[in-house]
Amino acid sequence: MAAQATFKSIKSLVPLLDRVLVQRFKADTKTASGIFLPTSATNAPLPEATVIAVGPGAPNKEGAIVPTSVKAGDRVLLPGWGGNSIKVGEDEFFLFKDSEILAKIQE
């Protein structure tokens, strides 16, 4: 269940520690030939997302801050489910720990 945000812009949200704020890609509801897909076919979340913001990193055992492995604007591969959902207006964003992100997509 998504938490309804009380702020107007996602830019005012700053992740803490090693949290990463992402927005999942939306599934296409229409094929290239113009056929509309049913919602049951587009309900599963896509595993790709764009990083919107990152936290400064988490402290290691010695107390030194270990920065996150991704930065804003990166494309990442996410697990099928998980993350904390945040809804701003009609847009849905997710907070993941840096260690939960499966891969960074480089093109």
Provide structural commentary.
The protein is mainly β. It has one helix and nine strands, in the order E-E-H-E-E-E-E-E-E-E. It has one helix spanning 39-42, and strands at 3-4, 19-24, 48-54, 58-59, 65-66, 75-77, 84-88, 91-97, 103-105. The chain is globular, with a radius of gyration of 16 Å.
Describe how the helices and strands are arranged.
Elements: E1 3-4, E2 19-24, H1 39-42, E3 48-54, E4 58-59, E5 65-66, E6 75-77, E7 84-88, E8 91-97, E9 103-105
Parallel strand pairs: 1-7
Antiparallel strand pairs: 2-3, 2-8, 3-6, 4-5, 6-9, 7-8
Features:
107 residues; 9 strands; single chain; mainly beta; 7-stranded mixed β-sheet
Shape: globular
Between the first and last Cα atoms, what is the distance in angstroms? 33 Å
H/E series, N to C?
Answer: EEHEEEEEEE
Helix content: under 10%
* Strand arrangement, major sheet: 1-7-8-2-3-6-9
Strand content: 25-35%
Question: Which spans have pLDDT < 50 for at least 5 consecutive residues?
Answer: none
Tell me the total number of β-strands. 9
Mean pLDDT: 78
Rg, rounded, reads 16 Å
How is the main sheet built?
A: 7 strands, mixed
Number of helix segments? 1
Secondary structural class: mainly beta
Summarize the structure.
The chain has 107 residues and is mainly beta. The protein contains one helix and nine strands; from the N terminus they run ββαβββββββ.
